[in-house]
Design brief:
globular; single chain; two-stranded antiparallel ribbon; alpha+beta; 3 helices
Amino acid sequence: MIRAAWGFRKLFLNVKHVDDTPIRRKIQQYLGSRLTYYRYMNGQLTLTPEQQKGIINIFRSYGYTEELDFDNYIDCYAYE
């Protein structure tokens, strides 16, 4: 079982305006494309724990150290 996540709105609640677009672009690059970003945003795809860590690390690289949570979580079986 893994704790999968989707949705990024909560992550951006306390982001400075100047950092918003660069962080979104980095996440889009990390996930592979803008389309894929929106599929994760809208719950069509779920983020693995490793992907969640990668995205959190992007926020950390911009100095955001507070507790960062995704919008939604679901426990599901890991698939490969």
